[in-house]
């Protein structure tokens, strides 16, 4: 698992920006206004998010519009699913073993 | 899929009385019977609040060892077990937390397993909690 995504998200303001962008693409000014964070700060956070591949930017006339990229989230999900699978397998084994315990007790 | 509070949750109904499920989770010799590739001699469980546990999975082909461990944060016999889950001596604040809840239904037991907070900043509750919440919703949207 590449921890770049996790590191980029583990800062409250950046996380808020990502949550906001889930609703749709926005400009720096719009983000700044919605979150009440100063524009230079927002730009700084967007740069980190962009370096981590979490957001991408495109120009529309003289506006720069930021939006989320799905790839890092798909990777995160796959990573989480691998943990889930590990535990699911263990619980299959637990279930089997409980049957044995139960039989032992009944004897 | 994850709920809004946990990174993921697994719910299972087990065909065994709750006391047995509790023993399977808390007694070393029982754990050795269901934890995969985990020799009994690597398992040490001090099941009380603040107590530590550790176990080591061993890859039988390569001999590689994977130690796991943590601290019990809450122990309510037969009902609830909350523990950190990570490397054996990792600091508590920085570790994922597992909450295991057992509910008796006659001779069967409902087991709910929550895993929360796969990453975060030590000592920063907001980031720690907020991160996993946000991750869940983000993951839902994109997959």
TrEMBL record, chain A:
Signal peptide: none annotated. SUPFAM superfamilies: Winged helix' DNA-binding domain. CDD domains: HTH_ARSR. Coiled coil: none annotated. This is Winged helix-turn-helix transcriptional regulator. Residues 1-88 form the HTH arsR-type domain. The keyword ATP-binding does not apply. The keyword DNA-binding applies. Pfam families: HTH_5 (PF01022).
TrEMBL record, chain B:
It comes from the Bacteria. Residues 15-139 form the Activator of Hsp90 ATPase homologue 1/2-like C-terminal domain. InterPro entries: ASHA1/2-like_C, START-like_dom_sf. Signal peptide: none annotated. CDD domains: SRPBCC_CalC_Aha1-like (cd07814). Pfam families: AHSA1. Belongs to the AHA1 family. This is SRPBCC domain-containing protein. It comes from Neobacillus rhizophilus.
């Amino acid at each position: 698992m590449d921890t770049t995504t996790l590191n980029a998200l583990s800062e409250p303001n950046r996380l808020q920006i990502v949550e906001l962008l889930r609703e749709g693409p926005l400009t720096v000014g719009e983000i700044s206004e919605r979150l009440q964070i100063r524009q230079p700060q927002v730009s700084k956070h967007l740069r980190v998010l962009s370096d981590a591949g979490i957001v991408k930017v495109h120009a529309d006339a003289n506006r720069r519009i930021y939006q989320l990229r799905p790839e890092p989230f798909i990777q995160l999900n796959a990573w989480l699913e691998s943990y889930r699978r590990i535990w699911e397998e263990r619980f299959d084994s637990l279930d089997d073993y409980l049957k044995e315990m139960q039989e032992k007790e009944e004897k | 899929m994850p709920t809004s509070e946990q990174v993921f949750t697994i719910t299972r109904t087990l065909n065994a009385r709750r006391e047995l499920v509790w023993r399977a989770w808390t007694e070393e010799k029982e754990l050795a019977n269901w934890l995969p590739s985990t020799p009994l001699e690597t398992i040490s469980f001090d099941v009380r609040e603040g107590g530590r546990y550790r176990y080591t999975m061993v890859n039988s082909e390569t001999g590689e060892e994977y130690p796991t461990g943590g601290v019990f944060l809450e122990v309510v016999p037969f009902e609830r077990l909350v523990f950190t889950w990570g490397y054996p001596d990792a600091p508590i604040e920085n570790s994922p937390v597992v909450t295991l809840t057992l509910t008796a239904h006659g001779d069967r037991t409902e087991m709910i397993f929550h895993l929360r907070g796969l990453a975060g900043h030590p000592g920063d509750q907001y980031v720690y909690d907020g991160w996993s919440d946000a991750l869940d919703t983000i993951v839902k949207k994109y997959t």
